[in-house]
Amino acid sequence: MLFKILSFAVLVSSCSSVQMISGTSFLANQKNITAEPLAEKEIDELIQEEESLVKHSPREEIEADESSPEEVALEIPSTEMPETKKFNPFRLFSNKKTEDLVVPLEKGPMLEISYHDEHFQVWKKYFLERGKERFARQLGRGEEYRELIQKIFDEYGLPQELFYVGLIESGYSSHVRSHASAVGPWQFIKGTATRYGMKVTPQFDERTNIHKSTEAAAKYFRDLYNIFGSWELALSAYNAGEYRIINAIRRGNTRDYKELVRLKLLPRETIHYVPKVAAARYLSQSRSKYQIAVQPVKDQFFIAAGPVTVNGSFSLSDISQKTGVNLADLKKLNPDLSRDVITAPRTGFSIVVPNHKIAEATGLSFSRRAVAQAVATSETPDTGTYIVRRGDNLSRIAGRHRTTISELRSLNGIRGSRIMVGQRLRVPASAVRTYKVQRGDNLYQIARKFKTTINEIVTLNSLKRTSIFPNQELQIPAES
């Protein structure tokens, strides 16, 4: 069988909430950055071009599988399922394609994959022609992370060439987001991310952190290989989801990847996934031959850093001051933090600091006063500032600024509900604006100018009367 029923049952029970990863970065829509991967329309055009070359007819839709995970495991044809082979990190690469036999940049085990040459040639052509500039840019970005990624994969006994999966998933852009809300270099959806130990909250999204997400990807790749016993099927499952591949194996009565492709039992995007990885690998290893210009990396910034656990609320600015690490470097190492001040879970939170500063960062404690001061002095484009007045409480402030109490707590590192008069609180920037009163202004004119009411301005600013003065700063509700 493909795997031992008992071991798979254990895996199923621990992974009953398996969710499919929408794999390819070419369907990703980046958030807050220029989209690097192909748009969905473009990949459809490319696949249509490929179909015209290899004469493939459109794939029949896979029928919905209503079986439970346990039933799927038991229904896999035993005649086609050899027992799962243990991963041997020293098994040599044995692709039959002559042009793939190049000197690799990686050490250790190689990624043993076989695929249809027609599909490989389509992606090779694309990366060398229409997508050459983008491919070179993404490869250059990946070089900054390569040494760290290969080190982590090596620690897990995995082929270092899995680096190229991340390349086609995201182009190694930390904040790329797919149409299915898959995020980060390895394009994890939230369900799979949490299953592999990553935290996803309004305060932090560890899918964007190259250290944390690569550790999770290594565990996921290891599990997929242990389930399917081949890298072709493991990569297909990374793209389409484990149970979709199991269903394809069951329907096709074979675990031969090429046969599943021939029978069109895999999604169209998944059919192209393995050869796309292979094309990216080949061209990266043959970049001189094909004149793919990649900017050299000055230093391996990310591999020279490691995790430190912080307990309680903390501020990156405060950590920077206490350790002497440049704040910009801390932010670059920790893109998963959405703001400067973070309320860590009770189990603590892992931040990444340069290796030579790990000892100094270990065991740091942060007082409430220091965190409050960091809130007051930090500036982000996504937040404004509100000064607490007598009679205020979180509920009233949240209502005025069209937000929630939980969001206020998250923005300001507040655990309970206690606030103090004069305290400066972050509020969503979209909820409030600041206006400096000009000579001759009155509340009626200001309210009309900003399409609000006098009462809202009075309430938001806790004004006891309608008198205002030149240069006085008033908070104005944003348009709803």
Description:
With about 475 residues, the protein is mostly helical. It is built from 21 helices and eight strands. Helix 3 (about 70-75) runs parallel beside helix 10 (about 240-250), helix 5 (about 130-155) crosses helix 8 and helix 9 crosses helix 10. The termini are far apart.
Low-confidence stretches: 1-40, 50-105
What do the pLDDT scores average to?
Answer: 75
- What's the CATH topology label of the largest domain? Lysozyme
**Would you count the extended β strands for me?**
8
CATH class of the largest domain, anyone?
Mainly Alpha
What is the chain-wise order of helices and strands? HHHHHHHHHHHHHEEHHEEHHEHHEEHHE
Name of the CATH architecture of the largest domain: Orthogonal Bundle
**What would you call the structural class?**
mainly alpha
Computed CA radius of gyration, to the nearest angstrom: 27 Å
- Helical fraction equals 40-55%
**Overall 3D shape:** elongated
Instruction: Report the span from N to C terminus.
Output: 60 Å
Strand order of the largest sheet: 1-4
Number of continuous helical runs: 21
Mind summarizing the main beta sheet? 2 strands, antiparallel
How much of the residues is beta strand, in percent? 5-15%
